[in-house]
Every structure is written in structure tokens, then in C-alpha cells.
Design goal:
Radius of gyration: 16 Å
Helix content: over 70%
Shape: globular
Order of helices and strands: HHHHHHHH
Structural class: mainly alpha
Largest sheet: none
């Protein structure tokens, strides 16, 4: 039995399941995560950082290097409204793809861009997308892909 299957069998609360998976993968090197675990990791980091300090904080704290993967991960799980906000933030910040390894977000960010990102932050907060869309879709993904959570 995979730990994903065990989590689903142990508790039906989506937030408990989400938290359980994050606890399991948090000690692992990112490079060794399975596809499903990577999706959980990048989506979790994104919503956690945005929820704590917005897109500006997410980009500054290193999320900028995973932002394109985060948008793709959100699309993969069906969290399209959140993915759309992330893609808007990428556009506002004029982030290149791929992000160069030495990319310094604050060196490129203007005050106008940061204000526009703040408006996207408010949309994220006001919509409740983290609890209404991202967490439930991640758990749905887990249910459909338990073999990726070993």
C-alpha cells in the first residue's frame, strides 16, 4: 500500500490528507520526488507563499524559479482559476521562460508591477482559491494517481 492510499484510507478530510502528504514529502530532496509529489510540492509552496505575503513574496523567496512549473501543475490538477492568476502574475512581472538560474526578481521588478501583483493577491485572498480549489483538486489528483505517492 502506498502512503497515498494509506492517507486516503485513514481520513476523509481533504485538508488532513493534503497536510499528511506535505508532511511526508517535506523532508525529501525535490529532485527525487515523483510527478505527483512535485505537483503537491510546487502547488503547496505557491499557495503558502501567496497566502502569507503575496506573489511578490513568492517570487522573492525563490518561487520564481518554479513559477512556470507551478502554473502547469495547477492546470494538471484542474485548478484553472488559480493557474490563471499565476499566469497573470507571470505576465505582470514579465518573467522569462525559462527562468535563468541567477535571475534576481527584485532587480527586475518595478513598483508598478508590484502594485499590480498586489491586486492579484487580493483576488487570490478574496476568492478563497486555496481552500476551495487547490487543496481539493490536489486530493482529487492523489485519489486518481495513488501510485505516484510511494
Amino acid at each position: 500500500m502506498t502512503y497515498g492510499e494509506a492517507a486516503l484510507a485513514k481520513n476523509s478530510d481533504p485538508f488532513w490528507i493534503y497536510t499528511y502528504v506535505i508532511d511526508v514529502i517535506s523532508g525529501r530532496d525535490f529532485e527525487v520526488l515523483t510527478l505527483g509529489e512535485r505537483i503537491f510540492a510546487v502547488a503547496s509552496r505557491l499557495v503558502g507563499e501567496i497566502g502569507n505575503g503575496g506573489f511578490d513574496q513568492y517570487f522573492f523567496n525563490g518561487g520564481v524559479v518554479q513559477v512556470h512549473e507551478a502554473a502547469e501543475s495547477l492546470e494538471a490538477i484542474g485548478a484553472s482559476r488559480t493557474a490563471q492568476l499565476v499566469r497573470q502574475a507571470i505576465g505582470v512581472a514579465k518573467l522569462p521562460e525559462p527562468i535563468p538560474p541567477d535571475y534576481d526578481y527584485y532587480q527586475h521588478a518595478t513598483e508598478e508591477q508590484r502594485q499590480r501583483l498586489n491586486a492579484l493577491d487580493r483576488q487570490f485572498y478574496d476568492s478563497g482559491l486555496e481552500s476551495r480549489e487547490v487543496h481539493p483538486r490536489l486530493v482529487d489528483y492523489l485519489r486518481e494517481h495513488t501510485e505516484e505517492f510511494t
